[in-house]
């Protein structure tokens, strides 16, 4: 089956709003072996949407359209589809009654403009939307199936699960392709490539993909075919890639993050974490506390941006700062050990650096970062000195990633002496 995706919305043609819906749809199509032939972003123009559809309908068997189903004047997807197919729109009384009930359940009177969302293309199947007001539609036309979905991501995801995936499964005989992920922190892409190179010869270069992000590498292994053979091949690929990449692999599940893995290790050990941050401004603490249940193991943080607070809050000696500078190995170690003692945690992270764009010097240019991880025993803080390229956001993100990876490895070493 060949498919196309149209993302509708003039805002998607600007610089503020990204079209992430197409990525979600592409992943689902790929899983069921559907060949995606075209993606397009089109503004809120009835004529241009209709023109694109007329070109696509003879060429593909499936068209997925997101956006333009709202109640406002610029939501013209229904009208454009009707025009492209040479069909009319009609007011669906059942859809209208459902919309009115939804507003009543919220204690609101339904605005008159929402009646637009009850207009349905003749011959379309209405797809109930449990996450919002605009229902989806499915239309068959000259051997092509068109799905119309709301552009709100949570509503799209709900309809993908309730309508699109069952439809795909019924026509493809089930899942045709699966992808497993291995997540690696703290290693450069070239080193990961060097380590896993033997797997290319064993499984084929096209089956393994390396994706690089700030401080993290994703390995994606893909297998296809009947389920027993596909699952067996995927397991073999994950096992081999894990062995080649070594202990740098911190997760083999999509839902796991570095901070959630660390949370599991801390909870399993019955230990707690504290952080003292300067250049990262609390980013490590924010990432840790983004994990539900992190209050089990995270006690708190000190954002010690000034030298005075480094001394007053976490006990960094003023004479140490005077002698070595705030951005230095001794200060990073003192911050990690000081916050652990001050807040009563088992582990402490300390980060100090120059995130830029100003503030650097010849000795300590922008991107200079010192970080330390202190454990339950005093005087055993581990230190790293980084010289990071990039802008302020990249330096801060990379620093937080390296600090968390240092902690993960320390926790693993304690758990598996």
Q: Using DSSP, what is the number of strands?
A: 17
Gap between N and C termini: 53 Å
What structural class results from the helix and strand content? alpha/beta
Please tell me the total number of domains: 3
Question: What would CATH call the class of the largest domain?
Answer: Alpha Beta
Spell out the helices and strands N to C.
EHEHEHEHEEEEHEHEEHEHEHEHHHEEEH
What is the CATH architecture assignment of the largest domain? 3-Layer(aba) Sandwich
The number of helical elements comes to 13
What Rg do the Cα atoms give? 27 Å
Q: Please report which band the strand proportion falls in: under 5%, 5-15%, 15-25%, 25-35%, 35-45% or over 45%.
A: 15-25%
Q: Main β-sheet: number of strands, strand sense, barrel status?
A: 6 strands, mixed
CATH topology of the largest domain: Molybdenum Cofactor Biosythetic Enzyme, Chain A
The mean pLDDT is 95
Residue ranges: pLDDT <50 for 5 or more in a row? none
Strands of the largest sheet, in order across it?
2-1-3-8-7-6
CATH superfamily of the largest domain: MoaB/Mog-like domain
């Amino acid at each position: 089956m060949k498919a196309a995706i149209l993302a509708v919305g003039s805002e998607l043609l600007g610089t503020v709003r990204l079209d992430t819906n197409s990525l979600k749809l592409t992943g689902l199509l790929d899983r069921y072996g559907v060949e995606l032939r075209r993606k397009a972003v089109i503004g809120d123009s009835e004529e241009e949407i209709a023109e694109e559809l007329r070109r696509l309908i003879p060429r593909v068997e499936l068209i997925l359209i997101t956006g333009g189903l709202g109640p406002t004047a610029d939501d013209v997807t229904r009208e454009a589809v009707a025009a492209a197919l040479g069909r009319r729109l009609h007011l669906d009384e059942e859809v209208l009654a459902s919309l009115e009930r939804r507003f009543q359940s919220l204690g609101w009177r339904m605005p008159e403009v929402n009646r637009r969302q009850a207009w349905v293309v003749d011959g379309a199947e209405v797809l109930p939307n449990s996450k919002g007001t605009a229902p989806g539609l499915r239309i068959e036309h000259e051997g092509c199936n068109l799905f119309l979905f709301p552009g709100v991501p949570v509503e799209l995801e709900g309809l993908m699960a309730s309508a699109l995936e069952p439809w795909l499964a019924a026509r493809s005989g089930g899942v045709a392709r699966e992808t497993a992920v291995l997540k690696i922190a703290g290693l450069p892409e070239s080193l990961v490539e060097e380590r896993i190179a033997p797997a290319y010869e064993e499984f084929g270069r096209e089956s393994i993909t390396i994706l690089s992000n700030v401080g993290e590498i994703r390995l994606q292994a893909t297998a296809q075919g009947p389920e027993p053979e596909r699952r067996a091949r995927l397991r073999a690929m994950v096992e081999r890639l894990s062995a080649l990449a070594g202990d740098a692999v911190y997760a083999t599940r999509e839902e796991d993050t570095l901070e959630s893995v660390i949370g599991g290790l801390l909870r399993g050990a019955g230990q707690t974490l504290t952080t003292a941050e300067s250049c990262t401004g609390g980013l490590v603490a924010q990432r840790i506390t983004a994990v539900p249940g992190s209050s089990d193991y995270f006690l708190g943080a000190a954002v010690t941006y000034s030298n005075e607070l480094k001394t007053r809050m976490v006990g960094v000696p003023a004479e140490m700062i005077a002698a070595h500078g705030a951005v230095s190995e001794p200060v990073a170690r003192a911050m990690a050990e000081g916050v652990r003692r001050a807040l009563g945690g088992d582990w402490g992270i300390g980060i100090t650096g120059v995130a830029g764009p100003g503030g650097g010097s010849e000795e300590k240019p922008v991107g200079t970062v010192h970080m330390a991880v202190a454990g339950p025993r005093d005087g055993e803080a581990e230190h790293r000195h980084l010289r990071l390229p990039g802008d302020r956001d990249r330096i801060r993100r990379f620093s937080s990633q390296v600090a968390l990876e240092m902690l993960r490895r320390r926790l693993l070493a304690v758990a598996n002496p």
